[in-house]
Structure formats: C-alpha cells, structure tokens
Write a structure and sequence with these properties.
about 325 residues; alpha/beta; 7-stranded mixed sheet; about 10% strand
C-alpha cells in the first residue's frame, strides 16, 4: 500500500513506485482498472487523473473519507467496493477489465494510527486487524502454545531467534496478558537484544503476526488468481510487494518455471505448459529520489506482466513457495 495519510485539507503523499505502476498499466485513457488495495487512494487518484475508470477495493473501514473525496471528484469514473482483493473478480462482474494493481501489505495510514496496533514504534493495543474484526495479534500472542508461536514467527517473519522470543512471551504472559504494542516490542528486545544501527528487533515478529492475523499470503495468492481470471488477453497486472516472501510468490506466479525443478538432461523433453503471463517485466525498485522522500519505500518491489490468451488456472499454492507455519521452526 505504501502511501501516507495526511489531514483532510491536503492531498495524500504519492504512493510508492507510482510512475512505474502507471507505465506498467498503460494505455490508461478510457481503460477500466481495478485498484485492489485502495488505502489512501493514491493509485486510484493517479489512474483517474490519467483518464482511466477505476473500481477500488479495500477491507479497512477507515478508508471511507478518502473514498468519499474521490467519489465527489470523479462521480462518473470512480466506484468503490468494500471487501478483499482476493475476490476482486466478483467486484467487476459483467465489466471488461483492462488492468489490475495490487499494493500488498500494511499502509502508512495504518502504521500511523497507534490504535490500530501495527507499529512497534507507537503505544497502542496489540491489534493489527485490517478489517477491524476477527482474531487480533493479542489473541495469538496470548493463546498460541510456545511451539506454535515460534513456528509462526519463523515462517512468516523469517525470525531466526523465534524460539527464544516465544519462550520469553510465554513466560511473560503467565504473569499478565500481553496487550500493547510497546509491551511486546520491549519484551522482544529483552529476549534477543539490540545492536546499534540494526533494525528494531521486533520488526520481523510484528510482520509475522500481522501476516497471520490478516491471512495475507492466502489473500495474495487468491488475489493473483482472481486477477488472472478477470483479465482478458492483453490485460495488465502490476503488483507492489514489501518483503521477499511476498515478492517470491508474485515472481513464481508470473513465471512458474522460476520455482520448478530443473529437468534432467537424461529425461525425455516434456512440453512446456501454456504461459498465462507474457512480457513479464524486470523487477522495479524505488530510486534515490523516492527513497529520500519516503524511506518506507526502501523494500518495495514492483512486478508486472501482460495476460496471454491461455485459460485461467484453478487456484493453486503449488510451486509458489508460500510459507507454512507447521513445522517451520
């Protein structure tokens, strides 16, 4: 999502890799683009300004003011559908879609609101629910057994010290529930220490909990296949991710051969499967000027491709290297 919310009397900051996303989706004049992760509306606004029609989707009810602003300014060309991008094809039934953009992860809007519980840098309830319903991060931290918690932190956060962190969490919650972001962040720092200049020791654990709470990997895979179903030949898909686990899924979705086993030269040559995506672009990353303006963009990666004429595949996690919690640590 990568965009920052500012007061209502100002425009939101430019979302990450905006120019690259617009280039990947062109031509835009008169095109129908699905913005599957609306957030503050930065991509939607830029698409509308470029002459596109936009159907935007988001599950976060807090986006309402930004939706209302665009509806007032673009009443004929902007539509908003509350929900998840994993079901984006259901939001555009009967409409011919030309492109889809997905900006995966937590938005700056959510990070900057302490009471959402996404940031270890702000005191707030340990929540992290994008849709503001269902199981929270506090529920996971206070109810999972030690092995389950360690596996989760390892698989979704690539936290190598997950077992030690889980031990400290279980010991601490025996005395009192862990209910706030700073309470958990301090506990993790106590468990594994902190070296000057390194990223905050709670970074990976907070990422893992957020991914688990919001089923983000499932959402991503489902959303990619939904885009494959809805886009006709020549349709364009642009996906911005913010960490290596997401990027690997998108990379293998576009090009399944990237994750497949090498074929032995002693085996008969098999026919390559039909390609659902062509003109797969080289991964794009933010330049120095963008990073200076928005340091949070530093880990963002854009991957884009064009839909072929091959029929859409059924949803499958096979070959996408989606992390699994079971037995991970």
């Amino acid at each position: 999502m990568g965009q920052r919310i500012v007061p209502d009397n100002q425009e939101p900051h430019v979302p990450v890799l905006l120019a690259e996303v617009l280039d990947a989706l062109r031509p835009l004049e008169g095109a129908l683009i699905v913005d599957g992760t609306f957030g503050a509306g930065g991509y939607s606004r830029a698409l509308l300004d470029a002459g596109a029609r936009v159907v935007a989707i988001d599950r976060d009810p807090n986006v309402a003011p930004h939706v209302e602003r665009l509806q007032a300014q673009f009443p004929q060309t902007f539509q908003f559908v509350p929900g998840t991008f994993s079901e984006l094809d259901q939001a555009v039934v009967g409409q011919a879609v030309d492109g889809v953009v997905l900006d995966i992860g937590v938005s700056s809007m959510q990070l900057d609101e302490a009471d959402r519980g996404f940031s270890f840098m702000r005191e707030g309830p340990l929540d992290m629910r994008m849709a503001q319903s269902g199981e929270s991060a506090a529920d996971l931290v206070n109810t999972l057994d030690e092995a389950e918690l360690a596996n989760l932190l390892y698989a979704y956060g690539e936290e190598r010290k997950s077992r030690r962190i889980a031990q400290f969490i279980v010991a601490a919650r025996a005395n009192e529930p862990i209910t706030t972001t700073t309470q958990l962040a301090r506990l993790i720092e106590k468990a594994i220490g902190r070296k000057p200049g390194d990223m905050h020791p709670a970074t990976r654990s907070f990422q893992a909990l957020r991914i688990a709470v919001n089923a983000e990997f499932d959402q991503l895979v489902e959303g990619l296949f939904a885009a494959e179903r809805v886009l006709p030949e020549g349709g364009r898909l642009a996906v911005v991710t913010f960490h290596s686990l997401e990027d690997r899924i998108v990379k293998r979705f576009f090009d399944p051969d990237k994750g497949g086993p090498a074929q032995s030269r002693h085996m008969p040559v098999t026919q390559a499967p039909e390609r659902r995506w062509v003109n797969v672009a080289k991964a794009a990353k933010p330049g120095a000027k963008e990073l200076e303006r928005n340091p949070r963009a530093r880990s963002s990666i854009l991957r884009a491709a064009v839909r072929s004429a091959a029929p859409a595949r059924p949803v499958s996690f096979e070959g996408l290297a989606v992390p699994t919690v079971r037995g991970a640590a």
